[in-house]
Amino acid sequence: MATVNTVLGTLDTAELGFTLMHEHVMVAASGIYSDYPALIGADAVARGVSRLKQAKDGGVDTLVDATTHDLGRNAPLLATVAQQAEVNVIVCTGWWLDVPRFMRGVSADQMARLFIRDVEEGFGDTGIKAGILKSAADSDGVTPELEVMARAAARAQLQTGLPLMIHSFPTGQVGRRQIAILKEEGVDLSRVKIDHSNDTTDVEYLSWILDQGCYLGLDRYPGGYVSSTARTNTLKALMDAGYTDRLCPSHDAIALHVIPEKPDGTMPTEEELTRRNPHGFLYMKNVVFPQLRDMGVSDETLDVLFVDNPRRFFEGG
Length: 317
Hints:
The protein has 317 residues and is α/β, with parallel strands linked by helices. 39% of the residues lie in helices and 16% in strands. The protein has a single domain (3-315), classed as Alpha-Beta Barrel (TIM Barrel). The strands form 2 sheets. It has a 9-stranded parallel sheet with strand order 10-9-8-7-6-5-4-3-11, sandwiched between helices. A two-stranded antiparallel sheet has the order 1-2.
C-alpha cells in the first residue's frame, strides 16, 4: 500500500480520487498571514473553506498546494481549511523564486536537510508534513541561487523518495537546464513533473520533456500568456501523440491572496476578485471538459488524466 502525506495526515494513494496537481489555497509572502492578516481580507478561513467546498461539491477530491515558504505557506491554515472543506490537501516543501540576499551562500546540502525535515518531521512544530517537493526557475533561467535550491530539492528527493514538481518557463525552454541538473544529481525523471508547460504551444519541446521520462504539468488555466483554447489544443495534441499517461492538467488557481484596496480606500468586492476565473477550481470541469469531449475525449480518458496519473505519480509508477 502506497501512502502520501496530506495536511491532515497520511492518505492511501488509492483514495486520492480526482486530483488537481498544481493549485494554491493561499499565496502571499512569508509571514504575511501571521503578521498582517488584514492584507488577505476579512474572514480568510471562511472564504478559503467556501472555495474548497465548491470544488468538493463539483467532484474534486484532492488539491496539491504548490505554496512554498517564500510564497507564504501556512500549514495550520491549510489544515483548517482542508478539514472544514473535507478536501485532501497535499502541500509542498522546497523553494520558489524569491531567494533573499541574506540567504545567498547557503549550500544545497544545508537546504536539503531543511526540506527533508519538512517531509519527515513536519513544518516547524506543527507536525504537518510535506507530501511533495518543489523547485523553480523562470524567465531569468536557473540563476546561481535557484540552482542551489534545485540541487537541494533533488537531494531531498533522493533521500525521501517524494516526487518533485518543477516551476518552469517553457517559452525560454528553461526545462532543458533544470532537467540537466536533475540528471547530474541522479534523480529518476519519472519522479519529476515539469509545470506551467501549457504556457507554450511548442509541442516539439514539450514532447522532448516527456521523452526524458518526466510528467508534464499543464496547469495554467484559464491562463494569460496563451489562451484557454490554445492550451486545450496543446493538451489534445500531446494526448494524440501518445503521452496521455503522463499529463497532469490543473489551474494554478489561488483561493486567497493579498487584496489591494481601491484608491478610495474601500476593498474590492468578491465579484471583482473572481472576474478572471469565476469557476475557481472547477474551471477545468466546467469549461475544459466540454471542449475535450467535443474533441472525442472519453470520460475514461479524463479519469486517466485526473485520477490515474496523479496516483501513479505519487506512487512512483
